[in-house]
Amino acid sequence: MISTTVVYAVPECPTGMLQYPPVPPAKCYAFITTLATFSQALDDCRNASQDLSSIHDAFINMVLEGEGEFSFRETDTFWIGANSLTKNWTWTDGSKVDFSDWKRGANLGVLNQCGVMNTRTGLWDMIACNETRPYICASDLFE
């Protein structure tokens, strides 16, 4: 009888990136401490074949808040991909807005604002897009 061993390579994120969930399909997250405007952060992410982070559930919101608090010690907020640069709030990666965690009293009717997450509460707020913040880039990890 012939014995055969099959080895499957499980894809992983590049070194220095957070992979969540731990097995595919997953996303890879890069926590960039350089301060940038929203458009600079978006350009930087896209130049690396990534996008600003979109958030689709409370658990990943919690994960990014926790890692953000650890990574971004010099600031209370960081850019996420939410923005109102068009008529409605959208994600820069074009994905569906199916989850949100806006702070109480956030005026979502204001146009030309960009979304940030608070590193201590995980709540989102909107600020002028020309302010500078650290940011999270994200990319899909496929099997």
Average pLDDT confidence is 91
Instruction: Extract low-pLDDT stretches.
Output: none
CATH architecture grouping: Roll
Order of helices and strands: EEHEHEEEEE
* CATH class category name: Alpha Beta
Instruction: Work out the helix count.
Output: 2
Number of domains: 1
InterPro entries: C-type_lectin-like (IPR001304), C-type_lectin-like/link_sf (IPR016186), C-type_lectin/snaclec_domain (IPR050111), CTDL_fold (IPR016187)
Protein name: C-type lectin domain-containing protein
Organism: Panagrolaimus davidi
Give a brief rundown of this model:
The chain is of the alpha+beta class and 143 residues long.
Could you walk me through the main structural features you see in this protein, from its secondary elements to its overall organization?
The chain is of the alpha+beta class and about 140 residues long. It has a single domain, classed as Mannose-Binding Protein A, Chain A, CATH 3.10.100.10. It contains two helices and eight strands; from the N terminus they run E-E-H-E-H-E-E-E-E-E. The chain has helices spanning about 40-45, 60-70, and strands at about 20, 25-35, 50, 75-85, 90, 115-120, 125-130, 135-140. The strands form two sheets. The protein has a four-stranded antiparallel sheet with strand order 1-2-8-3, with helices on both faces. The chain has a four-stranded antiparallel sheet with strand order 5-4-6-7. The longest helix is centred in the middle third of the chain and has 14 residues, at about 60-70. The model has no long low-confidence stretch (mean pLDDT about 90). This is C-type lectin domain-containing protein. InterPro entries: C-type_lectin-like, C-type_lectin-like/link_sf, C-type_lectin/snaclec_domain, CTDL_fold.
